[in-house]
């Protein structure tokens, strides 16, 4: 009898907690895009990597040596491709250029990284102005990444991202320092 009453109380407490605290809103992007522009047009151009979240610290370890990352997203050389160029400023001051090719999925905003068949990337809209969230999954990892058009978005954006990540069972959170000047991107 005691266990049934205790279980009922815990159940009611859970309902109350859910009604008081709700996760911030986010939704997967659609191919209709933003402002009437079809995907990927609104997402081309410069992006700054702001923060990451994952269930464990190990899933974010690749970003530990990073001070800042600037990305440029452009249309690829073939249909259904996006070219991503990045300049990574490490905490020791080095600049590391990187390039990726994303393959678009017909009728979806899901991306596949060339040369990494295990890696999947999904794009999500968030309420932060100029922001976007990516969910990357691969062999043995899952992480959420926050990008913004500004190198230093409003603090409320970071709070929302951290709150959302917590709702998505992420225990580890990484904020890029962004204390050094960004590396210059090559111009093609």
Topology of this structure?
Elements: H1 2-20, E1 26-28, E2 45-54, E3 66-75, E4 81-90, E5 95-104, E6 111-113, E7 116-126, E8 131-138, E9 141-148, H2 155-167, E10 172-175
Antiparallel strand pairs: 1-7, 2-3, 2-9, 2-10, 3-4, 4-5, 5-6, 6-7, 7-8, 8-9
What this model shows, in words?
The structure is a single chain. With 188 residues, this protein is an alpha+beta fold. It is built from two helices and ten strands, in the order H-E-E-E-E-E-E-E-E-E-H-E. The protein starts with a helix and ends in a 13-residue tail after the last strand. Residues 12-20 and 31-36 have low confidence and may be disordered.
Which descriptors apply to this entry?
188 residues; alpha+beta; eight-stranded antiparallel barrel; 10 strands; 17% helix
In short:
By secondary structure, the chain is α+β, with helices and mostly antiparallel strands.
